[in-house]
Amino acid sequence: MQSQYQLKFYLLMFVSLIGFGTFGFQWVEGLSLPDAFYFCIVTIATVGYGDISPATMPGKAMALILIVMGAGTFLGVMANATEIVLDKRGKKARLEKLNIMIGLFFSEAGTHLLSIFSNNDPGLNSSIRKELMINNQWKDADFIDLRKKRPSFPLRVDGNSVHFLALNKFLCEKSDLFLRLIENPTLLEHEQFTDLLISILHLKEELTARKNLRKIPDSDRTHLSGDCKRVYIQLLDYWIVYMQFIKKQYPFLFSLAVRQNPFDNESSVIVE
């Protein structure tokens, strides 16, 4: 972002110098507008005068100013333009790495967690499940429409039906995965995914801190249900974004993800 502002500044300075030099030479040297513009560009480029040169002292002074300021301004434009191009390439490479990590997350843990929470969501009726039946015919407009509808879904997790012991075991098994993902500097550019990982780690800590997950009082189940709901909502929101991305970039991953849809009770990885 800073490079873009600097580029705009140097471009403005460069254009201003060209305007100043063109009209200045036209006035002090008595040149036509095309000749004055040509004279200005040759001066800024410091390529030398092979045909015409400043004939007056004001013209020579202006040429010195343009040589000193023009060369520096032009170098500033080129340096910042190059930096922006390199930043875009670097950002693209980091985004590719991020998407690989997100794919690993859903493959190893995300999809399974969504299955756990959706199977323990009493408000997830058939109409909502139908909205989440992403398939190969979906377009970008369908994903955008689903993201708009998602806040209206009455998502919740029934603490009385969740097997917290099994959930804790699964989260503990995947602890190394979550920690390695959250420690990756690439994730600093993606706050939404980082927040999701923090919520998952918090849920794991809550479960691990309890000595007996088989006997949990109702009030504590309500508290844990709230932690599960937080992860559930963030996970679903990111799953929609992830599905849209892999549909466009990695169709083979999308095909498997559709067959593993955690909201489809009849999902099967078997291709029929």
Shape: elongated
Any low-confidence stretches, pLDDT <50, length ≥5?
Answer: none
Count of DSSP strands: 0
What pattern of helices and strands is seen along the backbone?
Answer: HHHHHHHHHH
Rg, Å, rounded:
31 Å
Counted by DSSP, the helix tally is: 10
Q: Estimate the mean pLDDT confidence.
A: 83
**Separation, N- and C-terminal Cα atoms:** 49 Å
- What profile does the largest beta sheet have? none
| Content of β-strand | under 5%
The helix/strand class is mainly alpha
Short description:
Helices cover 72% and strands 0% of the residues. It is mainly alpha-helical. It has 2 domains: 87 residues, Orthogonal Bundle (Helix Hairpins), CATH 1.10.287.70; 166 residues, no CATH class.
Can you give a write-up of this model?
By secondary structure, this protein is an all-alpha fold. It folds into 2 domains: 2-88, Helix Hairpins; 94-259, no CATH class. It contains 10 helices and no strands. It is elongated and about 95 Å long. The model has no long low-confidence stretch (mean pLDDT 83).
Protein traits:
Helix Hairpins; 10 helices; elongated; 2 domains; single chain; 0% strand
List the helices and strands and how they pair.
Layout: H1 2-28, H2 33-45, H3 57-119, H4 126-131, H5 140-149, H6 164-173, H7 175-183, H8 191-208, H9 218-249, H10 251-259
Helix pairs in contact: 1-2, 1-3, 2-3, 3-9, 5-9, 6-8, 7-8, 8-9, 9-10
